[in-house]
Design goal:
The protein is of the alpha/beta class. The protein is built from 10 helices and 7 strands. The radius of gyration is 17 Å and the shape is globular.
C-alpha cells in the first residue's frame, strides 16, 4: 500500500493546520481527553521521566509535565517542536529535533515511560518502529502506543458512501500536499504481532473515539459532546465497539528479565 511512498510523512509547514483542523475541533479535544483518561486509568503514573516520541504540538508532554513528570520530546518537524516548546515551557523539559529512527543519536539510556501517539501511521515501514521503541524502554517500564486504525478507516469510508474506494482498497494517504490522511493505517493483529515479537506485553487495548467519527452531525453541540464522552468511556474497551475506534491505544509493559 505504501511501497510507492518514498519517505515517512513529517509536518513542517502544517502546524497551523494541525492546531485548527484537529485540536481546534471536537474530534481533537475528545481524542486528548480519552487518551489522558486511558493513561490515568491503566498506567502507573508516579512522576517518572517520560520520553515522548513524535511529540507533535506537545499536548501530551504538557499534560505529563503538569502532573510532575520530567519530559523529553522528540519530534522530526522543527515547526511542531517549536510550538511544543512554547506550550510545555517547563524547566523539566528537553527538546530534540529528530525522527524516531534517530533516537539513539539524541537520547541515551532507557526510560520508565514512553509515549508514542499517532506516529506509526505516518511511517512507510511502521513495523520497524517497535524494536526501536523497545530499546528505549526500561525493563519494568510502560509504553503508551496509539495508532490510526485501518478497520475504522474502512468503516468510515463505507458510511460516507466511498464504496469504490473501499472495494479497491484505496484508503491510505499518499503523503502529498497538506492532507491529513495517514499513509500507513494499521491493523490490530499486525500491531499485536509486532509487540509480541519484540518481547513486549499488551496489558490493555482501548478504542479512542469509537462513536464520534460516525455521527451524522459533524459538529456536535457541547451538550451532546458531553453525553458522547460518557458513552465513549463506557464502551471503549467493550466488544465490538473498541475495534472501531478511530485510534487504537495499547498499554504495553516490558517484562523484567
Amino acid at each position: 500500500m505504501t511501497d510507492s511512498i518514498p519517505r515517512d510523512r513529517h509536518f513542517d509547514g502544517m502546524a497551523d493546520k494541525f492546531a485548527r483542523s484537529l485540536y481546534g475541533a471536537s474530534r481533537g479535544r475528545l481524542r486528548l481527553q480519552l487518551l489522558q483518561h486511558t493513561l490515568q486509568s491503566q498506567l502507573p503514573l508516579t512522576g517518572q521521566p517520560v520520553l515522548d516520541v513524535g511529540a507533535g504540538l506537545g499536548q501530551m508532554a504538557h499534560w505529563a509535565a503538569q502532573r510532575g513528570h520530567p519530559v523529553t520530546l522528540a519530534e522530526p518537524s522543527l515547526e511542531m517542536l517549536e510550538r511544543a516548546r512554547e506550550l510545555v515551557n517547563s524547566r523539566n523539559a528537553v527538546f530534540h529535533h529528530c525522527a524516531l529512527q534517530q533516537l539513539d543519536q539524541y537520547v541515551s539510556g532507557q526510560w520508565p515511560l514512553v509515549f508514542c501517539h499517532a506516529v506509526l501511521e505516518w511511517m512507510v515501514r511502521p513495523a520497524e518502529a517497535i524494536p526501536l521503541l523497545s530499546d528505549r524502554l526500561a525493563p519494568g517500564g510502560w509504553l503508551s502506543l496509539m495508532v490510526f486504525n485501518h478497520d475504522a478507516m474502512r468503516f468510515s469510508n463505507i458510511v460516507k458512501g466511498n464504496l469504490e474506494r473501499v472495494l479497491v482498497d484505496r484508503l491510505a494517504g499518499t503523503g502529498k500536499r497538506k492532507r491529513l490522511t495517514p499513509i500507513s493505517p494499521l491493523v490490530h493483529d499486525d500491531v499485536m504481532q509486532w509487540l509480541s515479537s519484540a518481547g513486549l506485553e499488551v496489558r490493555a487495548v482501548t478504542g479512542i473515539r469509537v462513536f464520534h467519527d460516525y455521527l451524522r452531525e459533524r459538529h456536535p453541540s457541547e451538550e451532546d459532546l458531553e453525553r458522547l464522552t460518557e458513552l465513549e468511556l463506557r464502551y471503549c474497551r467493550t466488544e465490538p465497539y473498541w475495534r472501531l475506534g478511530r485510534y487504537l491505544h495499547y498499554s504495553v509493559y516490558k517484562p523484567e528479565r
